[in-house]
Structures are given as structure tokens and as C-alpha cells.
Design a protein that fits this description.
With about 450 residues, the chain is α+β, with helices and mostly antiparallel strands. The chain has helices at about 65-70, 75-80, 110-120, 130-135, 140-150, 155-160, 180-185, 190-200, 210-220, 225-245, 250-270, 335-355, 365-375, 380-395, 410-420, 440-445, and strands spanning about 1-5, 5-10, 15, 95, 295-305, 310-315, 325-330, 360-365, 400-405, 425-430. A hairpin with a 3-residue loop joins strand 1 (about 1-5) and strand 2 (about 5-10). It binds zinc ion. GO terms for molecular function: nucleic acid binding; RNA-DNA hybrid ribonuclease activity.
Length: about 450
């Protein structure tokens, strides 16, 4: 197999990153995360020389079939295979370079090619437009707002009427035109005056949808991208105040709000020239309950070197710090701390999605995972894959925020994760906490 104009996959540390497992062949291709060669050395199963890696999965679940691994591979190879975290996406396997911790081939053309393939894989979600939105340095709620607006899922009159909600189809702000996302945020009278003042093109001939319009103005006005994003949100806030409180802003008030919030947010989130954003460490040495009426989940992972595995601990508490639910998940084979931390966050997101969509804060103590979740960076390693999956899962939960705390403030999740070494299977508690965490739960509530 050839890639990138001459780089031969059979050497040089290029191996498959297993995702769907349908491209990489078990005995023919390099896919073990092994810096020496990546090939399986055990003999192929007669008649199955071309079998692909997905045949080693438990069908329908993202885990390895341990019994098959025991039958086919040496203990050493089995250990390497079990270190590979399986993905829930099922996208095609891709090539990465084990020598680079982000999985990139060092030759520039190879890198470019990989980038292209990478973004082609996200036709509807992570194309360059979504990447631009993700990269905007604005509050997460505003990014989520832009995402929803571009997906046309704002509660505008046209959208509600399509869902058979009986409301007037006129725009509540100008009372002249039918309301749509494009009208409300770009073409409505006040919106147009705001955009004119900022020198941004809001002409109806520019685009037929809000997504297209935003795409065009963001790429034509790179230096004020953030302000454009914030202004869309300020216009929408104004529209909501008209609807719900019969108030309305002037052009200057909308712009002042948008600039003001952006400025405040930057003060907090972009302190000058710090290499990596460390959220106010000292204040976070203690666990804090979430705001009234919301829920928080804490997650942690523990590695069990001598058992060759890891465990995840998840705990959900309410605004009074009361226990809501907890989960312990033991996994075999994973021994890389970073992979384990990222897997813990992925487990938390999948659990919330199904059982506790009301949770708004996902708190962890791994700064590397937290930082990776905050920025969009192409990373072809397994760690990168897990971060991508986390971000993808979070898109469906627009209210969810990631948060980082010191380890000392993450003791309940930590205790649960450590306890995973004595469990064989996943276990879940709700309403009543397991006895062995009652002391740490109490300690979090003390006012020291
Ligand atoms: Zn209007």
C-alpha cells in the first residue's frame, strides 16, 4: 500500500489507527500500536488470511472479544491490542505515525494529505465551517448558539410553525416579514443597521441561508470573527427580550452588549501570553456544587498496572451536593493514563446522554484532557480520536460545559475509579450512594 507519493506503509512506523476495523487486515497490515513494526507475528488462522480487524470486536459493542484474542495471539500481542481504545464512530481506519505523538507523518505533503482526508470524513459536521466556529474564541454558549442557528434549530416562528405550534409567522421585532433564522439575525431592520454600523455585509443578495451568510462574512472579515459571532448572539438576545419582556434595544446597545461581553470574556479566558490555559488553580482546590437546579458530574480514571487495566469513576451530584448517581466502569488492557482519562470523559458523556441529559458540568482533574477539549486540533493518535468523540457527543448537549479541578477536589470520582479494580463489570448506583464513598461525599460538603 502506498500513501503520500511514496511513503510505504510497510515500514517507518506508519500504522493503522483502528476505528471501524474494516480496512486494516489482521495479518497483512500494520496496526499494533508498537513503535517497531506494528505487524502481528502470530500465524494467521488458516482460510482467514485476509480477515479484517473488526472481526476481533464483540459485534455491536465497542470492545475487543477477549476470548478470540486469547485464542489467536500471544500474551504480548494481546496486551498491545487491548491498549487500543475502540471507537463508537465506526469511521474508516486511518493511518498514523507511531513516532509522532500526534500521529503525523513528518513530510509536509503527507501531512496535508492527511488533513484533507480527515476533514473529508466529516461532510456535515466538522467541515471547515464548523472548524471555524469551533475555533472562535468566544464563550461556549455563543458557539453552541451559532451551531444551532446554522442548523436552523432556533425557535423562530417558521421553525415553530413547522412543528405545528400555533403562532404568528411575522417577525416579532419588525412585524413586517416572516421570521426565519436568516431574517431574524441578518435581514431584520435592527439587525441590518447593526451590521451596517460594523461594516459587515448583510445584503439579502449575499446568501440564502444563515449558515451560508455566516460562512461568507466570517471568511471575509477574519479580524472581527469573534465580534461577528457575539453580535449574532446579541441580536438574538434582543429579539428574545422583545418577545418575552416587550423590551428592545437600540443599535448602539446591541453593539455595546456584544463588544462588552466579548471584552469581559477575553479578560478571564485569555490572560496575556500564558502557554496553556490553567483555570484559576487555587480557587479550585475544593469541590463546589453546581448552580441551583443543575447537576454536575465528576469523572476520574485509575490505572491498575499489575492487573493490566483501568477503571473509571463517575459521580453526579446536585446543587446541594447531594448524591444523584454513580457509576464504576472497569476496562481491561488500557494502561495509558491519558487514554484512560479521555475514555472516562467519553463514558461520562455517553452515560449522560442516555440517562442524565440535565447534567450541565463535566468536571475532570486531567489538565491535558481539559485543554485538548477546549481547542480544535487535528490529532491522529488514539487520544485525538477520543477527544474528537467527546466533542462530537457534546454537540448534542448544548448546555454541557467542561470544567477542570485540582485532584484534591475530585476525590469522590477518584475513590470510585480506584474501586474499579475489585469489580468485573460496570456497576451503577442511583439515589443511594455506595457506602464506601460516604466519607468522601461528606468531606466535599465541609466548609473548610
Ligand atoms: Zn424582522
Amino acid at each position: 500500500m502506498l500513501l503520500c507519493g511514496g511513503a510505504d506503509l510497510h515500514g517507518d512506523g506508519a500504522v493503522y489507527r483502528v476505528e471501524s476495523g474494516t480496512s486494516a487486515r489482521i495479518w497483512r497490515d500494520p496496526w499494533l500500536p508498537n513503535p517497531n513494526h506494528g505487524f502481528v507475528t502470530s500465524d494467521p488462522l488458516p482460510g482467514h488470511e485476509e480477515a479484517t480487524v473488526n472481526q476481533l470486536f464483540v459485534p455491536g459493542e465497542n470492545r475487543w472479544d477477549y476470548d478470540i484474542l486469547v485464542d489467536l495471539f500471544s500474551e504480548e500481542e494481546r496486551g498491545q491490542i487491548l491498549k487500543i481504545p475502540l471507537s463508537s464512530y465506526g469511521r474508516s481506519d486511518r493511518i498514523y505515525w507511531v513516532h509522532d505523538n500526534k500521529g503525523f507523518y513528518s513530510v509536509r505533503s503527507g501531512y496535508k494529505r492527511l488533513m484533507q482526508e480527515f476533514f473529508q470524513e466529516y461532510p456535515n459536521t466538522m467541515d471547515s465551517f464548523w472548524r471555524t466556529i469551533w475555533n472562535l474564541k468566544i464563550p461556549a454558549k455563543v458557539r453552541n448558539f451559532l451551531w444551532r442557528a446554522s442548523q436552523l434549530v432556533l425557535p423562530t416562528a417558521d421553525h415553530l410553525r413547522a412543528k405545528r405550534v400555533d403562532i404568528d409567522k411575522l417577525c416579532p421585532v419588525c412585524l413586517q416579514h416572516d421570521e426565519s433564522v436568516l431574517h431574524s439575525l441578518v435581514h431584520c431592520t435592527l439587525a441590518r443597521r447593526v451590521w451596517d454600523t460594523l461594516g459587515i455585509n448583510s445584503s439579502p443578495s449575499l446568501a440564502d441561508s444563515f449558515k451560508d451568510w455566516l460562512n461568507i462574512v466570517l471568511s471575509n472579515n477574519k479580524e472581527v470573527r469573534e465580534l461577528i459571532g457575539m453580535t449574532c448572539w446579541a441580536i438574538w438576545t434582543n429579539r428574545n427580550e422583545v418577545v418575552w419582556q416587550s423590551r428592545s434595544y437600540t443599535v448602539m446597545k446591541v453593539i455595546a452588549n456584544s463588544k462588552g461581553f466579548l471584552h469581559q470574556w477575553r479578560e478571564v479566558h485569555q490572560p496575556a501570553a500564558t502557554p496553556s490555559r490553567i483555570p484559576k488553580p487555587l480557587d479550585f482546590a475544593k469541590w463546589y456544587p453546581p448552580a441551583d437546579g443543575s447537576l454536575k458530574i465528576n469523572t476520574d480514571a485509575a490505572i491498575f498496572e499489575n492487573q493490566g487495566g483501568a477503571g473509571f469513576g463517575l459521580v453526579i451530584r446536585d446543587s446541594r451536593g447531594s448524591f444523584v448517581a454513580a457509576k464504576i466502569i472497569p476496562v481491561r488492557g488500557i494502561t495509558d493514563p491519558l487514554i484512560a482519562e479521555a475514555l472516562g470523559v467519553r463514558e461520562a458523556l455517553s452515560w449522560l446522554k442516555v440517562r442524565f441529559p440535565a447534567v450541565q458540568i463535566i468536571e475532570m482533574d486531567s489538565l491535558l484532557v481539559y485543554n485538548a477539549l477546549q481547542k480544535y486540533e487535528v490529532d491522529n493518535s488514539y487520544f485525538g480520536l477520543l477527544i474528537e468523540e467527546c466533542r462530537f457527543l457534546a454537540l448534542d448537549m448544548p448546555n454541557v460545559k467542561f470544567s477542570w479541578v485540582r485532584r484534591s477536589a475530585n476525590q469522590v470520582a477518584h475513590t470510585l475509579a480506584k474501586a474499579a479494580s475489585s469489580f468485573h463489570d460496570t456497576i451503577e448506583w442511583s439515589n443511594y450512594s455506595p457506602l464506601f464513598i460516604s466519607n468522601v461525599l461528606l468531606a466535599d460538603l465541609s466548609n473548610e
